């Protein structure tokens, strides 16, 4: 019997609005220390020297597009978009905080470690930004942070925290979170096993058209 669990980070399309509430808390590292949010950002015109030396101009251009896709000529530059997103995130906008977290997780926003080494992605910084938005009750951020706790990416693996975050997002109607809550109830991971509650959450997600949840219901039958 295979129950399907959503394991890929959601990448919500952002419609940036005005500044929201001030952020409630920064994310915490193990031991209670606050996670530091680095200000490092490498523009799409900057690339590690090892890549500059080894790639052709065409290959470098393709990689730069992956790092930060260019918009139309009338759009802001990628650097301007990042800086505006960061400004909104620091002002407390949960959508911007979530979007910034996604960028650090995927490597679109390039950060560096303490030694200056460029990181291909930065789940710890992503988790810190998701935490800020999740504290404001933003469902997409709760879902994303739950996935990081479920997988132990950027934060210590903690299925209890993952379940709690999924449940908060699920109660706001996040369909993937609803499926994941069902999975965790079914498996007894992070919460006592309860097939009835698992089926209840799978039904809620399936009613919104979630194929994984419908497949999970079919398996339970």
TrEMBL record:
The keyword Secreted does not apply. Residues 23-58 are annotated as: Disordered. Pfam families: Sel1 (PF08238). Keywords: Signal. The keyword Signal applies. It comes from the Bacteria. Residues 1-17 form the signal peptide. InterPro entries: Mitotic_Regulator, Sel1-like, TPR-like_helical_dom_sf. PROSITE patterns: PROKAR_LIPOPROTEIN. This is Sel1-like repeat. It comes from Nitrosospira multiformis (strain ATCC 25196 / NCIMB 11849 / C 71).
């Amino acid at each position: 019997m295979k129950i399907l669990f959503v394991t890929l980070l959601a990448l919500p399309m952002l419609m940036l609005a005005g500044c929201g509430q001030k952020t409630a808390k920064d994310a915490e590292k193990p031991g209670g220390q606050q996670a530091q949010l680095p200000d490092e950002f490498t523009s799409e015109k900057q690339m590690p020297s090892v890549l500059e030396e080894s790639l052709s101009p065409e290959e470098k251009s393709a990689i730069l597009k992956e790092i930060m896709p260019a918009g139309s000529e009338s759009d802001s530059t990628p650097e301007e978009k990042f800086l505006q997103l960061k400004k909104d995130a620091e002002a407390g906008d949960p959508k911007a905080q979530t979007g910034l977290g996604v960028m650090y997780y995927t490597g679109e926003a390039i950060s560096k470690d303490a030694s200056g080494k460029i990181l291909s992605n930065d789940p710890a910084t992503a988790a810190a930004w998701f935490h800020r938005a999740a504290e404001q009750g933003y469902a997409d951020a709760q879902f994303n942070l739950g996935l990081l706790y479920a997988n132990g990416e950027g934060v210590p693996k903690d299925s209890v925290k993952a379940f709690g975050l999924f449940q908060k997002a699920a109660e706001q109607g996040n369909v993937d979170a609803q499926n994941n809550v069902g999975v965790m109830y079914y498996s007894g991971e992070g919460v006592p096993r309860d097939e009835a509650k698992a089926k209840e959450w799978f039904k809620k997600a399936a009613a919104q058209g979630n194929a994984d949840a419908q497949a999970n219901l079919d398996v339970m039958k």
